[in-house]
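Appendix B.2, paired examples.
Example (i):
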Amino acid sequence: MFDPERVFEEIKKRFSLPYLTKEEGLVRVFSINTNEASEELYSAILEIIEKELRGLKNGEYQKMEISKGENFDSGIKQTEILKGVCYEIYSFDTLTMCYLRVLWERGIFYKREWISVDADEMKKSPWFSEMEP
């Protein structure tokens, strides 16, 4: 079973980076925004995630690498995405789906770079119910 909370707890422990979390009904979200970006930190975060994914014995995941992108908030470009990785993770034991992303971003208005790590987890996802044509 993949649990995003274990990922965020390990990041917090290793790098003293607090995270935000919220749970409503069958949905949990987690978020970290670092104060700076470095190749060492970015690689270490991905290593923590990959280690957790190696323990996913009854499930599947997709890994998508991002080479560049943009983030728009309310129609206004806020950041450039310099690189990133997105994971879509399905845990068959718990019928849970998690969308997890790690983005290296550069602000348009705030001239700095940071790494954001965000996860959206849906318990008892409709992906596990039978679909009708």
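Example (ii):
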Amino acid sequence: MPVVEVLSILGVYAVIFAVYVAVVLVIAFGRQPLEQWIGRRRDRKRARIEAELDRTQAELRQTILQLASALNGNALEARKALIRESYLARGEVPKE
């Protein structure tokens, strides 16, 4: 067997061994940091979603308050119109 083939075969085995050692080291020592990174990523996503929900809730609350205020103003005008119409139906002049 020529020397070049032996060196090529040894090189392939060396690379396979290096990859094997790297995989074993990642499994042995990289699992906890990987789990921590995934946990931090999940926490950041949860915080981002909660912030978006808080912002949307504040916008909806403001919209509801604006609509309630507008309806209250409309209700006041409607009551005034009804009172005015009831005076006119009785033939009286409404007091302003």
